[in-house]
Write a structure and sequence with these properties.
Order of helices and strands: HEHHHEEEEEEE
Helix content: 25-40%
Shape: globular
Low-confidence stretches: 5-13, 15-27
Number of helices: 4
Distance between the termini: 69 Å
Number of strands: 8
Largest sheet: 5 strands, antiparallel
Radius of gyration: 22 Å
Mean pLDDT: 81
């Protein structure tokens, strides 16, 4: 009798867990996950990672569709646009502004824009950094009509470029 009751209990919990898992997948947040840990101030000042980070930033400048990467744009105007490809022609752009208030100038993130395959832009955040300027306010941006190419997209992005 105890074995039958235990078996029924196990099947009940198994079916509840299966239903819960299915529900979680149906209602799971779908969108863009951002992570800035690969571009922390510590790692940016590390000699071991400097070449890799420089190469990653250069790659991100080549993906950008909206601005030129030249001396006038970056040095004189203080504007920098980096981008990452997502899937199926989608990409995300990160706009930065030069900040000359410290000992050395830095570029701080000022805007995040989603670029659709047809070239249309959708502004995701006009003020993505925290008040201190070292971290992102949000690590996730959900989309109303999520294209399957954007489900759980993950991008590593610098908040500040030292």
């Amino acid at each position: 009798m105890k074995i039958i009751a235990a078996t029924l209990l196990c099947f009940t919990f198994q079916s509840i867990a299966s239903a819960q898992s299915a529900c979680e997948q149906s209602f799971a947040n779908k969108g863009l996950y951002l992570d800035s840990s690969e571009y922390s101030q510590e790692l940016q000042s590390s000699k071991e990672y400097l070449n890799l980070m420089t190469l990653n930033l250069l790659k991100m400048t080549s993906v950008s569709k909206s601005a030129a990467f030249n001396e006038k744009q970056v040095i004189e105007k203080g504007d920098l646009v980096l981008a990452q490809n997502l899937n199926d022609g989608w990409s995300v752009e990160f706009s930065y502004s030069a900040d000359h208030r410290g000992e050395a100038p830095v570029f701080r993130i000022k805007e995040i824009t989603l670029i659709k395959p047809n070239g249309e832009k959708e502004n995701l955040d006009k003020s993505p950094a925290t008040l201190q300027g070292q971290n992102l306010k949000k690590g996730f941006y959900s989309f109303k009509d999520v294209n399957s190419a954007l489900e759980n997209a993950q991008v590593n992005v610098p908040v500040v470029i030292y």
